[in-house]
């Protein structure tokens, strides 16, 4: 359900010259269009908080590809996890991040932009396609937020992650 804005242009004598209806898709409208449901925010798995706000920046802790409170799959890229699977997990990390955002802000409409994300990919020694995995997260953020979803990014291969997760992503958002 897009929000509509009606624009009318008048001449000096207040006679309407032009009228147009502009449909604006909010991030939550986009999620509905993409058939993505935001789950409850995942509970921290240790002694930390899901996010910290400093001024208009919101720093999110690392998100794992949890679904229904459980890790979707364990393993490393280049061994037991394919690039396609890891791309799906990267999207799940974004969905989990959105759930933390919504829980903290009340609405995704308060997100001004995604500033940066750091992706950590559990990788076999010879695996070097970490950016390809993280593209799925970047692309989903763009689909949801448009230009405000474009961000700076780091894609890092690591030898292991918590719970033997194949991927972990942390985020920085600018909020209103």
Mind explaining what this structure looks like?
The structure is a single chain. This protein has 176 residues and is of the alpha+beta class. The protein folds into two domains: 1-34, no CATH class; 36-175, RutC-like (60s Ribosomal Protein L30, Chain: A, 2-Layer Sandwich), CATH 3.30.1330.40. It has three helices and nine strands. The chain has helices spanning 27-33, 83-105, 130-145; strands at 3-10, 16-24, 51-54, 57-63, 66-67, 70-71, 111-122, 152-158, 167-175. The strands form three sheets. The chain has a five-stranded mixed sheet with strand order 3-4-9-7-8, with helices on one face. Strands 1-2 form a two-stranded antiparallel sheet. β5 and β6 (70-71) form a beta hairpin. α2 crosses α3.
Which characteristics define this entry?
176 residues, two-stranded antiparallel sheet, Endoribonuclease L-PSP/chorismate mutase-like domain-containing protein, 60s Ribosomal Protein L30, Chain: A, 9 strands, RutC-like_sf, Endoribo_LPSP/chorism_mut-like, elongated, alpha+beta
């Amino acid at each position: 359900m897009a929000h509509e804005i009606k624009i009318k242009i008048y001449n000096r004598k207040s006679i309407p010259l032009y009228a147009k209806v502009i449909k604006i898709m909010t991030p939550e409208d986009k999620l509905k269009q993409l058939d993505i449901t935001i789950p409850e925010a995942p509970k921290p798995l240790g002694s930390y908080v899901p996010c910290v706000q400093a001024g208009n920046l919101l720093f999110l802790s690392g998100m794992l590809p949890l679904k229904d409170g459980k890790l979707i799959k364990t393993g490393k890229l280049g061994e037991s996890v394919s690039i396609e699977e890891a791309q799906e997990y990267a999207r799940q990390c974004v969905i989990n991040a959105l759930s933390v955002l919504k829980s903290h802000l009340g609405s995704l409409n308060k997100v001004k932009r995604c500033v940066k994300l750091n992706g950590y990919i559990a990788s076999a020694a010879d695996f070097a396609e970490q950016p390809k995995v993280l593209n799925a997260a970047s692309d989903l953020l763009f689909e949801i937020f448009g230009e405000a979803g474009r961000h700076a990014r780091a894609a890092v291969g690591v030898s292991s992650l918590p719970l033997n997760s194949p991927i972990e992503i942390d985020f920085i958002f600018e909020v209103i």
